[in-house]
Specification:
The complex is a heterodimer of chains A (1011) and B (463). Chain A is α/β, with parallel strands linked by helices and 1011 residues long. Chain A has 5 domains: 88 residues, no CATH class; 197 residues, Rossmann fold, CATH 3.40.50.740; 148 residues, Dimethylsulfoxide Reductase, domain 2 (3-Layer(aba) Sandwich), CATH 3.40.228; 132 residues, Barwin-like endoglucanases, CATH 2.40.40; 281 residues, Alpha-Beta Plaits, CATH 3.30.70. Chain A is 31% helix and 18% strand. Chain A has 34 helices and 38 strands. Chain B is globular. Helices cover 70% and strands 0% of the residues of chain B. In chain B, helix 8 packs across helix 9 and helix 9 packs antiparallel against helix 14. The chains are: A alpha/beta (1011), B mainly alpha (463). Chains A and B meet through helix 24, strand 29, helix 29 and strand 33 of A and helix 6 of B.
Chain lengths: 1011, 463
């Protein structure tokens, strides 16, 4: 007690002379202990103390930003002690805590529950199940019932969760850049609405990204309908979708048509510059169906064959049996040549270097009518898409491997034309109000159209977005958007299935959805949920609506809602379309960044740190140039170059990429953001100055000049092409990825067991091996199915609270991913085969990490798992040195963010957040194993096969990863472990890895192999 | 006892044409000259300058350690394939340097090598300080240094013992035993001289301090008896340590399965390397000291010559080790070994291997020439070359083996940071600071032992 008052006195003496200390001391002098608190209250009421408080804690806390000196510290300490007493006197509102006598419905305590929702990309839905821990969504899994997912997801659905929790998201309504409030916005919107209703909507424009949502589409259509605002217009701009595909379908069929593929029915697949296994509305499903036909079986030919012609290596080409490194502008020639050989009436100039390749391909396609498929890539012009449709028709694939539908998009027009029309209208002053829902055109629109200047001419600029981005910055009103995982809504999947979106959490920052904004414009100010539910009730008009609605929410989609196939016939006359002249000079392809896409995920640290699937570059975009072109231009990896194109120029760094077509460069977009957030702002190189409407996906005639050096950072082979060559050569020596053709496999299914260094004979040890009486966990990874898409890497990161470390630390080789996809090449570097090999902890039986740990921090469990005891680890790093697979990761600093509340919310509570100085590594998702074991023990049974899915296994679109109990001979993993294709890597070291591989089998065309 | 002294005195005459003590010395002059350094020379300018610089560098070490504790060992350069860098390189380097002291004081004592007497004190001090420097690294290189004591076997509420299969644990025992024995041996050897210092000190303060440290030594026959026995026992205990400490340190690598580490030749080759670098360091320190303090009478050309010969011998063993690594890589036909050797010689760190060969194998061959061994500046430079060479050896073993091991996708590079360098230089600062203090306050040459080198004819003076 006395010490407290003593402190207070000290404040006085040092701070305020005007305070009469003597008087206060006297005041206290007569009081005895128990009366102290009352006395303090009295004390605090003296005017002197009030003055002191005002001086000491002025609302302007700026004084405290000065460095603390001794006096300040004493003042602070004294004041906080004194004030601590004061707050204790405040009566806190009464909060009763009591256990649930009757738990509310669906309350599950600590047990996580899953809700069906969707992940949206380019407007299309991927059905997901989101795990919720006491109301906090922590992990997205694929929805096994959903046709676009089948239980798996791509990288973005995994990473979207981090975007939801991103502390940099827009958190409040802004008016002219200053914090405003929602009611002010609604009031302003009402005024705007009334003004435009009076003018039948003239001057009102709505700009959205691609929308497939039936409810939102219909609401916008109603808004634009004759009764409300017939003169208002709806424009769309979504740079991650393809105008080539839209216009190509129109060119082929004369009307907008959507389509999807059935890859499991295709024996021969031709990709014309398409990355269909990795990106696009159906990519996850396509990868699944494709891989289903990549697993060889003894005694019968069943593998499909994939031909890829592309400019830059992609995930799709990893599993290609034949790859042709074509210039992007050359693909049209290939398409024409192939189409002509298949009987499509089209001008084919012929004589290209690809002719023999195309001839073999045409022969192969013709041999598989109705079971083949030609896929055109997003960056290709409409003619290539149209020719692909025509070829599929000629091959009799329609209805078998390709299915046509009425357009799934709400506004199936050319996005480029739509945006251009909007810009022209803005420039001519016809647009009074522009409402941008979700898009960021200031960053993504073609630079020659100068969206920004046109936008600034609009009188009312309203922006709904997740971030205060480049567009929000110059909008009058910015409204924080609710993340998909915070919203009600719907969207169509790749096949048209109507997928429901339900929120996992109340919008953290009070975000709004497009449905709410459109609802408000329609004059219906209700909640998004009511608006949306009413829409479906009115639309379906079924008696048992409530039951159906609940089922749709539960399942994640409306059953049987995929539209019926549409009968279309190719009408276009391709002879009227002369071949595009082949341009000269260096060709530049612009591609979406595989991770951040057009920049929308720029602030997602998981995606920034995730290595790009082929180059393994992180935290940057790069100019990809092939080895021979680089030699010709005297460039090497990490050269900073100036690219001049159409009179505009940018600077960017070179990454020499094996397999990049000669005389081309590919540069990925989505970087150089000026207003992305703390993570994404300023990373990489802004490509937009040279990406114009004339050369949106590809342009030619670039001048390149070396201007300096830059440090690109990758997680594999940091030092350019020579190191890549060395590593690839050594990989072959060591037989890490074992490969054979299907023909060879059929002759000798266990070919993989005869490759690589010899294993030590069994029984060399003097000691008997440990007998696993209960479970014996193990994993098998099928290299025939792995595309290297890296969804597993992000899934592992999300599941196991793995931190990101940033570019500088990756440069030092300190990335923390527990799982990585090793990439190797074989063959000439200008067009090599690429191999992807996922590597996790192998949980070796004779784990070299275990005996070298001086404190027993890494030990073997009785179920065979090599466990890491974080609490015991002192961090000698001996285990990491001694791990031949180099899968151990060390916390060189305190990498984990322990302070940001929203990031804490998104973590998996079942996994420890690691501190500085400890080692970590793959645990086989031990939290999932234990959860399943607890369930099994409650029911007094063994864990069933398939009951435990590791995060990497669950997310894998191709189901290449299988985990389970090796002791259960009937389990899938035990069967695969006994498969003749099974082999382990580095087994000659007698590590006896638990994680083994199935050798990769390819199915090349014998005709092309001979040549 | 008497026999022992007798033997020593009689062998002095066998020192031959090159004396290990300059002629003309009496007991009194020996004591005067050596004891004068701490007691009368005082604070010469070279000492003040040298000490100040060393202490500043030592200060840098303290700052580095503070920064390291505050931020984490990420301020150093180790990374994913290369989990150890300067930390373990320097640890092994310092431990190796310490070996000369133990060898001189223990093995050469047992072998009755007279010439060791005038350098033993000094070399033992060097051992202690080198072990102190070495000790810094395993302690602070752990991710959580505040828990590094978990490597010690002590009863605890966690009911956890260290894991006895780990060579790091063997290190803990080997190095701590080594440090303890070396300290005791050094101190016991100092006692008679501390008594001399006590008797000769003029200031009261020095008398008290030296007096306390002398533990009441009066030079009685019984004292000498006890002393000789203790000294022999400690020599006997130290002798196996010369071999065992670096053998155990080499197990850190040999037990690992990394190509370039996993080799049975490591123990002998490490021990030879340790002695090699230890003698180089003794020369690096003795040559300037002998010049500054005019100790040429006690550290004679004979000493320098002998030490050069030891370096030549151990250097050849080390060279044999390098040759065997190369031979075995080829002869074994082992995929990993062959690649390791290829990468070591022609990979990104090839420069370090070839520098090592030049520094440790080629240049020291000039020591075959007597002229070279007699050329003090040359020998000094050579000692530095060997120190650098032995440091490079550890760099080659640790970094080039780890940076490209089994899976090519995990290959990486190691770059030391400025904190790696400041920790390394700082530990040299600590070492030199301790050496300066030692030279200033203690007799850096064993007075009583050197006196036994005086020919029997000139008897006189007291023990």
């Amino acid at each position: 007690m006395s010490s407290i008052s003593g402190n207070l006195v000290q404040i006085k003496t040092s701070a305020e002379k005007s305070l009469d200390l003597g008087a206060i001391r006297e005041k206290f002098a007569n009081k005895s202990g128990p009366e102290f608190w009352r006395s303090l209250e009295e004390f605090s009421n003296t005017p002197e103390f009030q003055d002191f408080l005002d001086n000491e804690f002025p609302q302007l806390g700026s004084d405290w930003r000065k460095p603390l000196n001794r006096r300040n510290i004493l003042k602070l300490m004294g004041a906080s002690l004194g004030l601590a007493g004061l707050t204790a006197c405040t009566r806190q509102p009464l909060e009763k805590m009591a256990p649930y006598v009757k738990a509310p419905e669906e309350f599950s305590g600590n047990v996580p529950v899953q809700f069906a929702s969707a992940h949206l990309l380019g407007g299309y839905a991927e059905g997901i199940l989101v795990e919720s821990h006491q109301g906090r969504p922590t992990k997205a899994e694929g929805n096994p019932e959903h046709p676009a997912s089948l239980g798996a997801t791509g990288v973005h659905a995994q990473a979207a969760l981090l975007t939801m929790w991103d502390p940099d998201r827009s958190q409040s309504v802004l008016f002219e850049g200053k914090i405003s409030n929602t009611s002010a916005f609604w009031a302003a919107l009402t005024v705007i609405r009334e003004k435009h209703i009076a003018k039948k909507g003239a001057g009102l424009r709505i700009l959205t990204e691609n929308i497939t949502s039936p409810s939102l589409t219909e609401m916008i259509r109603t808004l634009l309908g004759p009764e409300v605002m017939p003169q208002a217009k709806w424009h769309v701009w979504d740079p991650i979708t393809s105008d080539g595909a839209r216009l190509g379908a129109k060119l082929a069929f004369g009307e907008p048509v959507s389509h999807y593929y059935k890859l499991d029915a295709a024996d021969v697949i031709v990709s014309l510059d398409s990355d269909f296994l990795n990106f696009g509305p159906g990519a996850v499903r396509y990868a699944h169906d494709f891989a289903a036909r990549r697993r060889p079986e003894p005694g019968k030919r069943r593998m499909n064959r994939l031909y890829v012609a592309e400019v830059t290596p992609t995930v799709t080409s990893v599993l290609a049996d034949h790859r042709y490194a074509a210039k992007a502008t050359e693909v049209e020639g290939i398409a024409r040549s192939l189409a002509a050989k298949l009987g499509v009436a089209v001008d084919a100039p012929g004589g290209g270097p690809y002719e023999s390749w195309v001839a073999a391909l045409a022969k192969d396609l013709k041999a598989h009518p109705g079971a083949s498929l030609v896929v055109a890539g997003d960056p290709q012009p409409p003619i290539v898409h149209a020719l692909a449709h025509a070829m599929n028709e000629k091959l009799g694939n329609v209805g078998k491997t390709v299915v046509y539908l009425d357009p799934l998009e709400g506004n199936p027009v050319s996005h480029a034309e739509s945006l251009k029309a909007l810009i022209d209208e803005m420039n001519s002053g016809q647009v009074e109000t522009l409402i941008i829902l979700g898009a960021n055109p200031v960053f993504t629109a073609p630079s020659d159209w100068n969206f920004r200047d046109a936008y600034l001419k609009v009188a009312n600029r309203i922006h709904l977005g997740l971030y205060v981005d480049e567009t929000a910055e110059i909008s009058h009103w910015h409204v924080p958007e609710a993340h998909t995982l915070e919203s009600w809504g719907d969207a169509r999947a790749y096949d048209g299935t109507i997928t429901t979106i339900q929120p996992l959490i109340d919008p953290i920052y009070g975000g709004r959805t497009a449905i709410e904004i459109i609802g408000a414009l329609l004059g219906k100010q209700t909640t998004a949920f009511q608006t949306w539910k009413r829409f479906w009730r009115d639309k379906l008009k079924v008696p048992d609506f409530e039951a159906q609605f609940q089922k749709a929410l539960h399942d994640g989609f409306w059953a049987n809602s995929a539209p019926p196939p549409k009968n279309v016939v190719v009408k276009g006359d391709f002879r009227q379309l002369p071949p595009a002249p082949s341009p000269s000079g260096l060709e530049i392809s612009f591609r979406l960044d595989p991770n951040v896409l057009d920049g929308r995920f720029a602030n997602n640290a998981w995606l920034q740190e995730l290595p790009k699937p082929i180059s393994k570059v992180t935290w940057d975009n790069a100019v990809h140039i092939g080895p021979s072109t680089a030699e010709k231009l005297a460039l090497t990896t990490d050269d900073l170059i100036e690219i001049r194109l159409r009179g505009r120029s940018i600077q960017a760094a070179v990454w020499v990429t094996p397999g990049q077509a000669p005389d081309t460069a590919t540069i990925t977009v989505g970087y150089g953001r000026k207003r992305a957030g703390n993570v994404g702002t300023g990373l990489g190189f802004d490509v937009s100055p040279i990406r114009t409407s004339q050369g949106w996906w590809v342009d030619s005639g670039a001048d390149i000049r070396k201007v300096g050096r830059y440090k690109l950072v990758s997680t594999q082979t940091h030092h350019g092409i020579q190191q890549i060559k060395d590593a690839d050569a050594e990989q072959l020596n060591r037989a890490l990825v074992r490969v054979a053709t299907e023909t060879h496999y059929l002759e000798k299914p266990d070919f993989a067991k005869h490759m690589g260094p010899h294993d030590p004979p069994p029984g060399l040890s003097l000691y008997p091996g440990y007998e696993y009486k209960g479970y014996k966990w193990g994993m098998v990874i099928d290299l025939s199915a792995c595309t290297g898409c890296q969804a597993c890497v992000v899934a592992c990161q999300a599941e196991n609270n793995i931190t990101v470390v940033g570019k500088d630390e990756v440069a030092r080789g300190r990335e923390m991913h527990w799982m990585r996809i090793d990439r190797y090449h074989k063959g000439e570097l200008d067009n090599p085969s690429a191999y992807a090999q996922p590597v996790t902890c192998m949980h070796c039986e004779n784990a070299p990490c275990e005996p070298v740990c001086p404190v027993a921090a890494t030990v073997h469990s009785e179920e065979g798992i090599n466990q890491m005891v974080y609490n015991r680890c002192v961090g000698t790093r001996y285990c990491a040195n001694n791990c031949p697979y180099k899968v151990r990761r060390f916390n060189f600093f305190l990498y984990a963010d322990w302070d940001t509340p929203s990031l804490q919310g998104g973590r998996n509570p079942e996994v420890t957040v690691r501190s500085r100085g400890v080692m970590e590594k793959c645990t086989y998702c031990i939290q999932r194993i234990n959860r399943a074991k607890i369930e099994a023990e409650k029911e007094d049974r063994r864990v069933r096969d398939g009951e435990i899915l590791t995060a990497c296994q669950q997310v894998c679109p191709t189901k290449a990863i299988v985990f389970g109990d090796l002791n259960d001979k009937e389990s899938q993993v035990a069967k695969l472990a006994a498969d003749p294709r099974n082999y382990g890597i580095l087994t000659d070291l007698n590590t006896q890895p638990r994680t083994t591989y199935l050798a990769r089998v390819e199915n090349p065309n014998p005709e092309l192999v001979k040549g | 006892m008497a026999d022992h002294l007798e033997t020593r005195n009689s062998t002095t005459t066998l020192a031959g044409p090159e004396p290990v003590l300059a002629p003309g010395h009496t007991y009194a002059t020996v004591t005067d000259k050596i004891a004068a350094v701490p007691l009368e020379v005082g604070w010469p300018r070279f000492w003040i300058v040298g000490f100040t610089i060393s202490a500043l560098i030592f200060g840098m070490l303290l700052m580095t350690i503070l920064w390291l504790l505050g931020k984490g060992i990420g301020v150093w350069g180790p990374n994913n394939p290369v989990g150890w860098g300067f930390d373990i390189i320097n640890f092994v380097w310092w431990i190796g340097i310490g070996h000369a002291g133990t060898l001189i004081s223990a093995i050469l004592l047992l072998l009755r090598q007279q010439w060791r007497m005038s350098i033993s004190r000094f070399a033992e001090a060097m051992t202690l300080f080198a072990v102190a420097c070495a000790f810094l690294y395993p302690t602070f290189h752990t991710g959580r240094p505040w828990l590094a004591y978990w490597l010690l076997p002590y009863p605890n509420t966690m009911a956890m013992w260290p894991q006895p299969r780990s060579p790091l644990l063997w290190d803990v025992f080997a190095v701590s035993t080594y440090a303890t024995i070396s300290l005791v041996f050094w101190y016991v050897g100092l006692i008679p001289d501390l008594a001399s210092m006590r008797d000769r000190a003029k200031s009261r303060f020095a008398q008290v301090i030296y007096g306390i440290l002398a533990l009441g030594w009066r030079g009685s026959a019984q004292h000498w008896n006890h002393y000789e026995i203790a000294s022999l026992i400690l020599a006997g205990l130290s002798t196996p340590l010369v071999l065992s400490v670096h053998t155990v340190v080499s197990f850190d690598f040999a037990v690992g399965l990394i190509p370039g580490w996993h080799a049975t030749i490591f123990p002998p080759y490490f021990v030879a390397g340790a002695i090699y670098s230890g003698f180089a360091m003794v020369l690096t320190l003795a040559i300037p000291m002998r010049a500054w303090y005019g100790m040429q009478d006690f550290i004679t050309m004979k000493h320098i010559d002998n030490m050069c010969k030891v370096m030549l011998g151990t250097g050849l063993i080390v060279a044999y080790g390098y040759a065997m690594e190369a031979f075995m890589a080829w002869y074994s036909g082992n995929l990993w070994e062959m690649f390791m050797f290829k990468n070591r010689t022609t990979g990104p760190y090839g420069w370090s291997y070839w520098s090592l060969i030049i520094f440790n194998v080629l240049i020291p061959q000039v020591l075959w020439l007597k002229k070279a061994r007699q050329n003090i500046p040359l020998v000094f430079v050579l000692s530095l070359v060997i120190n650098v060479g032995m440091w490079l050896e550890r760099f080659v073993i640790i970094v080039t083996s780890l940076h490209r091991d089994f899976l090519p996708a995990s290959w990486g590079m190691y770059y030391p940071t400025k904190y790696d360098w400041s920790m390394y230089l700082g530990s040299i600062g600590l070492f030199l600071t301790l050496m300066y203090l030692f030279v200033r306050f203690l007799p850096s040459i064993s007075i009583f032992e050197v006196r036994t080198l005086i020919p029997r004819a000139s008897k006189g003076g007291a023990h």
